[in-house]
From TrEMBL:
Keywords: Transferase. It holds the Pfam family CoA_transf_3. It comes from the Bacteria. Gene3D superfamilies: Crotonobetainyl-coa:carnitine coa-transferase, domain 1 (3.40.50.10540), formyl-coa transferase, domain 3 (3.30.1540.10). The keyword Transferase applies. InterPro entries: CoA-transferase_III_domain (IPR050483), CoA-Trfase_fam_III (IPR003673), CoA-Trfase_III_dom3_sf (IPR044855), CoA-Trfase_III_dom_1_sf (IPR023606). The keyword Transferase applies. GO terms for molecular function: CoA-transferase activity. This is Crotonobetainyl-CoA:carnitine CoA-transferase CaiB. It comes from Cohaesibacter gelatinilyticus.
Length: 407
């Protein structure tokens, strides 16, 4: 089927995670993604292994699995943008593109004449998305920003980890580069909004995305809890600041998650757990009271759940509609019947005939679903074809660019 964005071409001048994540989403939705990389080096994450992707014979490629998580459905073109000839190629590609996404430091592309103001003179309706750690303005604009430091500076680490004073009680980062991933998502939303505006007005625009802004925006209830109360939230382990019981509890053979969201669910849980007196107890009859008496309630629940195995609780609570779940390792995630049913593990064809593993795009569109045309490309795999077919470069021109180390 034709993808929703099959009429769109994206020039992807990004590397690592946030920018490539956005490009991959657009590619899954049908856009033509041309990923521009440094000749001989490429995206930093190509070397961020082990593990490494494998060819059809099971031999390791030079590209890391990390690179593979965010670069499918793209063409790799190697161009040295530090040279005038390389800059000229980028300008030619811009003239034939709808969107440019970049994550260079503030001002990094201006010295090459590849900043938004320079390129909109070539392509007035260009949508130009800049992704940086701190944005295009402000006292920290010129600083480099990586996910780990943004999780810390943006407050996420202050609400993640075991309570202070307990084992492992120091602030903790999330196990996925969440600030990067969320910035990729917000960047995609911004790009789609700019496309909608362009459809109405014919005008392009510049999108200024900052990891720090995104991290602060996605503090969600933790941020509003502070803004309303004036009290900064702290790290509470697996407990929730606003809901009780909403945390992990032990069973006789594992831990599980109990996620009670209302009084009715609490009553159902208590009936199954043999704690029938608790819903009528003034200390626990409402969520507000349960939050005030969380430690006492958690101890009562723990004493009961620890007596029976995980499967018992999953079966009993699941049948009653009480929100609960196991704590899966990632190998068990992909064995979950629901994950299998939803087709979240995919394989994508590569140039050498191998099938590269990946995780499906979670967007389920009824008319134009995501598609997976090609595996993450080898470095420079499409340089000659893109320059010849899109820009009309002949053999002699390509040879000159190659011998001059422009491509």
């Amino acid at each position: 089927m034709t993808g929703a964005l099959s009429h769109i071409r994206v020039l992807d001048l990004t590397r690592v995670l946030a920018g490539p994540w956005s490009g991959q989403i657009l590619g899954d939705l049908g856009a033509d993604i041309i990923k521009v990389e440094r000749p001989g080096v490429g995206d930093d994450t190509r070397g961020w292994g082990p593990p490494y992707l494998k060819d059809k014979d099971g031999n390791e490629r030079s590209d890391a699995a990390y690179f593979g998580c965010t670069n499918r459905n793209k063409q790799s073109v190697t161009i040295d943008i530090t040279k005038p000839e390389g800059q000229a190629l980028i300008r030619e590609l811009v003239a034939k593109s709808d969107i440019l996404v970049e994550n260079y430091k503030v001002g990094g592309l201006k010295k090459y004449g590849l900043d938004y103001d320079s390129l909109k003179a070539i392509k007035p309706d260009l949508i130009y998305c800049s992704i940086t750690g701190f944005g295009q303005t402000g006292p920290d604009a010129t600083k480099a920003g990586y996910d780990f430091m943004i999780q810390g500076m943006g407050g996420l680490m202050s609400v993640t980890g075991q309570p202070e004073g307990s084992p492992g009680g120091e602030p903790m980062k999330v196990g996925v580069a969440l600030a990067d991933v969320m910035t990729g998502l917000y960047s995609t939303i911004g790009i789609l909004a700019a496309l909608a505006y362009r459809d109405q007005t014919g005008e392009g625009q510049h999108i200024d995305m900052a990891l720090l802004d995104v991290q602060v925006a996605t503090l969600a209830n933790q941020a509003t809890n502070y803004l309303v109360s004036g009290k900064a939230p702290t790290h509470m382990g697996n407990a929730h600041p606003n809901l009780v019981p909403y945390q992990t509890f032990p069973t006789s053979d594992a831990h599980f998650i109990l996620a009670i969201g209302n009084d009715s669910q609490f009553a159902k849980f208590c009936a199954i757990a043999g704690l029938d007196d608790l819903p009528g107890d003034i200390r626990f009859d409402t969520n507000r009271h349960r939050v005030e008496n969380r430690d006492v309630l958690a101890a009562k629940i723990t004493a009961v759940t620890a007596d029976k195995p995980l499967d018992y609780w999953m079966e009993k609570l699941g049948k009653a509609g009480v929100p609960c779940g196991p704590i899966n390792s990632i190998d068990r995630v992909f064995e979950e019947p629901q994950i299998k049913h939803r087709g979240m593990a995919i394989e994508v064809p590569a140039k050498d005939g191998s099938m590269q593993p990946g995780v499906a795009n979670p967007i389920k569109l009824s008319k134009t679903p995501p598609s997976y045309k090609s595996a993450p490309p080898e470095l420079g795999e499409h340089t000659l074809s893109v320059l010849a077919n899109l820009l009309g470069k002949d053999e002699s021109e390509l040879e000159a660019l190659s011998s001059g180390k422009i491509i």
